[in-house]
Fold these 3 entries.
Entry 1:
Amino acid sequence: MTILTHIAAQPFGDEKASHSYAPLLLPLRSRRLVIRDFVSGDLGALHAYAERREVTRYLLWGPNTVEQSRATLAEFIAQQEVAPRVRYDLALALPGGKAIGGISLHLDDLRLGNAEIGYVLHSDYWGGGFASEAVQMVATAAFAQWPLNRLWARCMESNKASRRVLERLGMRHEGTLLRAERLDGAWHNVMMYAVLADEWRTRG
Ligand SMILES: CC(C)(COP(=O)(O)OP(=O)(O)OC[C@H]1O[C@@H](n2cnc3c(N)ncnc32)[C@H](O)[C@@H]1OP(=O)(O)O)[C@@H](O)C(=O)NCCC(=O)NCCS
């Protein structure tokens, strides 16, 4: 759900902790996906999914106007220059370069080594395992490159696809916050998931 909010997070923690978080090495590549920083030329691709009601149904933003997508992209690009970088809002792209979604990794507490992961995909690509693959790639890189302790995610209880993404990757359902969000006038329960560094390394 992180990829939905554009409110700047305040990284807690001391100076010392931030030195251990070198910039994540990008791009990440698999046979069918490239995870890279957004560039200004991605506006059309970003807006193509951000304007769709079915895509943003369980998100805290959208559907976007083109101006909102432009502002979002500008914010994602601005975060690339922040040091230490604590917000990675990355493009999920096909090997040919076209962005088909986004994946976010926000270091929300450097001292405790906590980061939140979130993702969104253009609906034309749903059901192909792209989100699961992307989360796997980003989580693997984050745990390998950083002294991360805990990776967490949250999703609306009614968002079955997102729950499956997290569960099939071995993230633990740690609890459900009742009526913790309100969308289109209706209350939603929010499910909290997490995986610890040692759990990630020893999972099957
Ligand atoms: C959530 C989302 C990213 C999943 O992307 P995806 O690439 O289709 O997911 P995957 O193909 O990796 O599928 C993951 C699992 O979810 C299941 N799934 C996919 N769509 C589903 C649906 N509508 N209902 C129930 N399960 C669904 C898949 O079958 C798969 O489970 P399985 O391994 O048991 O078969 C995508 O639906 C999306 O972008 N939704 C809108 C944005 C959003 O909600 N983001 C998450 C915010 S918390």
Note: Residues 27-202 form a domain with the Aminopeptidase fold (CATH 3.40.630.30).
Entry 2:
Amino acid sequence: MTEVHNYMEDIVSDVLDEVLVDMEDSCKCEKCKHDVLALALNKLPPKYVVTEKGRLYTKLSELEVQFKADVIKEIIVAFGAVKARPQH
Ligand SMILES: [Zn+2]
């Protein structure tokens, strides 16, 4: 059993939790987190990978280094947008 998965979702979700620690004045409710996640994911290219039984074929560490800087940048932009006009 294999499935196609957008690995960018995992990266953005992980990086979001890291960035959130430094965003003391930002709302951390689920709605705002999801808004940031959606905004950032719309700006970033999807990265589809084939997974089997929950394991990824792709070398994740290499992908992460390659995309992390862009991901952090888009998340910070998205945080600014959500903070300026929160939907919660
Ligand atoms: Zn909120």
Note: The mean pLDDT is 86.
Entry 3:
Amino acid sequence: MPGDPAMSFAKDIRPMFTETDIDHMEPFGLDLSSRDEVADRADEIYRMVKEKTMPPPASGLPLWTDEMCERFAAWQRQGCPP
Ligand code: HEM
């Protein structure tokens, strides 16, 4: 949206991934601490957090709130700035 304030991966997106998320996704070939990897697979990641399939509910880790999902979508609309 044109009204969204300027966002960055470092400031707005990276802090939403926990160290547990990053450690547990590394063996599956996805580095959630990497702007480029997250940007490449942003649609898939968005769908998973929005549908609450990731982090896996059985892990007991907190699922993303609507506000977190919307923040991720706004970052995508801005072209995934680093
Ligand atoms: C491209 C997107 C993603 C794919 C394909 C993916 C795939 C997977 C797979 C196959 C597993 C292991 C099986 C399972 O526990 O269900 C897993 C585990 C996990 N994923 Fe993801 N994931 C993605 C994104 C994410 C995101 C965005 C997060 C965090 C916000 C996340 C957090 C986790 C965690 C914490 C585990 C370990 C759960 C446990 O050990 O109990 N994943 N993921």
Note: The chain has a mean pLDDT of 95.
